[in-house]
Amino acid sequence: MEIFIDLENLIKVKQVSKNKVCEACHLQRTQLNNYCKNKVSRIDFAILARLCEFLDCTPNDILKLR
Fold first, then answer.
1. Are 48 and 62 in contact (CB under 8 A)?
2. How far is the CA of 28 from the CAs of 3, 65, 66, in angstroms?
């Protein structure tokens, strides 16, 4: 089993643009894209908290097991 980040799908479901997510969560676009494409090896909990707050979700909605 591995943990993966299902952020891109969640953003589509919530119908929010990546630009709005970047602006609200104080992220650079490349940083958000790395999270969306599972190209991060360490998750910043402060970023995860901001994403959860903005997208009105829990970490369980973003982080999945496969």
1. yes
2. 23, 26, 28
List, for residues 5-18, the tens digit of each pLDDT value: 999 999 999 999 99
Question: Which of 28, 29, 33, 25 lies closest to 7 in space, CA to CA?
Answer: 33
- Rounded CA-CA distance 40/58 in Å is 19
Contact status, residue 2 vs residue 62, Cβ threshold 8 Å: no
pTM score of the predicted model? 0.90
Over residues 34-43, the pLDDT tens digits come to 999 999 989 9
